[in-house]
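Two folds, back to back.
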Amino acid sequence: MAQPSSFFITTPIFYVNDAPHIGHAYTEVAADVLARWHRQSGDDTWFLTGTDEHGQKILRTATANGVAPKEWADRLVETAWKPLLNTINISNDDFIRTTDQRHEEGVAKFLQKLYDDGHVYAGEFEALYCVGCEEFKPKSEIVDGTGAFEGEKVCAIHSKPLELLQEKNYFFRMSAFQERLLKLYEERPDFVQPASARNEVVAFVQQGLEDLSISRTSFDWGIPIPWDSSHVTYVWFDALLNYVTATGYGADEAEFERRWPGVHIVGKDILRFHAVIWPAMLMAAGLDVPESVYAHGWLLVGGEKMSKSKLTGIAPNEITDTFGADAFRYYFMRAISFGHDGSFSWEDLAARYQAELANGFGNLASRVLAMNAKYFEGKVPKSGTEEPADAEIRELAARAAATADKKMSAFAIHDAIAAVWELVDELNGYITDQEPWVLAKDEAKRARLGTVLYTATEGLRALAELLHPIIPEATAKLWTALGAEETLGALAEQPLREAGTWGRLAAGTELQPLAVLFPRIENEGDTK
């Protein structure tokens, strides 16, 4: 079992049949914020992401582009998927590809164990298959086609015709784990989150589970079944195993013990794979099930789910090229309640950038540091007698840190940011009320001026630490300006959960010039 202080978090591994859009980036940022929060808190953190490169969909896409599937995967990984991580400033510790040798070897060992233990058998299968989902569709997701597809059965998610497949396959006895899964959901109600996702999963399993076809013979782009090389492994069975093959399963038991089990952040459209099939697989192999599976909502554009096929996909760099990575991260984590669907609009993004980031946080930092430079020769002033207004800021900093940590632990990223942003707003109000520029005109009030500017500067210190997981570039600039010698985000002596502890910024510290945190965006109304 993993130690209590360990935190292993994953994103799904994404198909390389196309370039990423902001829906993929949304998942990456959410997992990254949580990973950074735990890492900065001193937890033994490991953040895994990667790409899913097998299956019929990849094979068809590569063939349509006139290249071998591995060549296609290599091209997309290097030109699109890995660059995405830099575009939105992702701090992953590992990147796994299902074509990695470590993964293919781990999948073979896992399959062989299930086969040897009697959890796999041979049989025949006929059902409607969606290549887009890489799944034999349940009846609840099969609908009648309309328009060009009238008279055909189509996938409820992709709105494209389903294919009738009939094959001799190997099956995983998933039905045998129905009661154990229901017991898991009952005994650990937080295993699937949020509550709406848990209810959906429980209802699905209660309807009865069927055995799962885990091999294919109609194509050969996949990991061979170890005891029968005429079959390749079903792409989802292959893909789900990345979470354990990346952490040492069957190869490095010490590392596996250290990391597993983990937390999975997934889109709600792939919840069933992670909350039903995956724990059943692990149960069969005698391994721990995940700590939790958290399903976030969809990003909507024009009322529709983000999709390249429906021309609603937006490339992340379309946003970051104008607003930067920090604004991308802040907007999607703050504007959307994590766990629910959320609509994206350029107008809302531009408005929040200006009001909350540039004017709210950026202007606060520049004003406070400029006054320190002007009135105290660029050094942190000494704090004198505390007055009620100062105490309110001190108490709020402690409260914000505690609330944010509690909310992050509950995956309520938007609420955590809101708790910290209350300190941004209150500090702006505090500066306005205390009028340090007026205090500076009266030498008799210099001690009070020092207290006010120390309070504001120490508030900036707390904000730099608390907001670093969300807006790492801006907070690193602020941290440097505050004269800190340590690297923000790796504070062994100053764990994030203690960011609200007052007085950690020493009086007399030499401050540095502050780089612009959020540059002015020209012609905001014409961004799109």
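---
second:
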Amino acid sequence: MRTTDTGSDTAAGAGTGGGNGNPAAGGPASEEARLAQEAESQLSSLSTAPGEEKLNVPSIGVIGWARWFWRQLTSMRVALILLFLLSLAAIPGSVIPQSNVDRVKVEDFQKKHDVLSPVYEKLQLFDVYTSVWFSAIYILLFVSLAGCIVPRTWQFVGQLRSRPPRAPRRLERMPAYTTWHTDAAPDEVLGGARKLLAGRRFRVEREGDAVASEKGYLREAGNLLFHIALIVLLLAFAAGQLWKSDGGKLIVKGDGFSNTLPQYDDFKSGSLFEPDDLESFGFSLKDFHATYEESGPQKGTARSYRADVSYWKGADGKEKQDSIKVNHPLQIGDSKVFLNGNGYAPVVSVKDGEGRTAYRGPVAFLPQDGNLTSSGVVKVTDYRNAKGRKDQLGFQGFFVPTFGGSGTGTMFSQSPSLKYPVLFLTAYHGDLGMEFGAAQSVYQLDTKRMKQFKKADGSPLAKKILPGETMKLPDGDAELKFEGVRQWAQFQIVHEVGNGWALGGALAAIGGLAGSLFIQRRRVWVRAVAGPDGRTVVEMAGLGRSESARLPEELGDLAYAMQAEAPPVQDGPPAGESAAGESPADGDTQAGNEPENEHQKDDKDKAENEHQKDDKDKAEDGAEASPRGDRK
């Protein structure tokens, strides 16, 4: 039956002005267009290209994205990446000067690198360990480790509560395998195996004709211990940065120190530190001993430093004696007192124009070289000149413990030992600038608002004086006397919390890592069944969770120990029977024994066939194992 496309015909007729299918009027063209549309439709139905319709894939939502992010964060791969990033982030902290360690070096770096310094400031490279990006890596690593430990801990607890897996049906397929025959009963063999494996700290479970055992759970315990130790280390380091305090104090021989905030020369602390966290203790410097090389190419090199101190803990603590050496600090509670430096403090006295003592005491001079050539200042705030007017004095200069003599023409010391002390000073008067409220170093003299004393010829007043000599100012205004020299020592008092936890975490991490690397998870099965010849067939097999060359050796040792309960016997008829199957006490006739001999012969043939089949299976699976467990 033939059909016509009414719509096509109508369109064609309309286009040709009602030509009624006349080919000249465009009828064949309409037919070709229709055929082309049908071909295109068929081709599109056969195409494997994706259509224009979108797949209706449901969105995972906020909770799904949160779960995906959590799985990624707690994966081992991300934890290793974060640990690597943390190690990389610590590199700038060891290369670029840090504000919380040495502010002076940071300022020097900023002066020398005026282009890089603003960039470093924005990137917080002068405060790496307290920066936002370092803290973010630190916190993410902490969360990653915590999220990794919790599920693995529950999994490990489940493994401890579970029973060892049952013995496989064919033990000879295991990587380590051995077998032998014995006259002991199967129950005796399995009982001995259970006792032996339990004595070797295996978890043992008997099921049917086999004993299953498993050992090496400390491997996973070591892995968990390693991760927990890393968290302890992170917490200890965080606590050490947040609650730490570090300060310095220069103490002249005979003076003391009390562990309170105003006593420090410089002090820095963590963001969560409070002044009340300072421990109550104090100490005084009784004596200081320093020895140096006196000759040879190492002349002047320090040999030893020792500060003899007396210290007390608490307000009513008993005073004790001790010595502080380089790298041998004094431990007082959770604080440590380190010996960092030493030098000399000339003892001077200043009399004003009215003859009264305006100042007297030791003044610490700071070393400038290895021979302790030192610079310092003397500031006198309570002073009156010869006319009774209030004024302020300032002296600055150098001190050398061993002067080379006037012929050298230099004020550099020739040795760090106190052999020929000389003090060289220049004098100023005016305003010291101590009333403006700004912090001022006791080792520097601000001469902006001061005038230098002049000699009669107009040259600056400067004098080189020895112990016991005096330096007089013009017009009888005042005089300074060099009375002697005392030693001083620089101490650093450090209070850090979490050091014990950090040490314990580091040791635990090493122990856990060693356990996870060297302890092997392994399983041992022992099966004992009665053989066709009446003897007991003993099979032992071992399987390790990872490849280990020690597994066959361990199985061999266990098999050797098992032979005390299950002595091996050679293949053949049971003990007490002759080769023909007759007992020595058997008085039956030859004819009467024929059926029995036939039956024994069938059993022997059957046993040999099964033995040959077992050998064939072993040859297919691998080399046959020796009774010691070694594969041939």
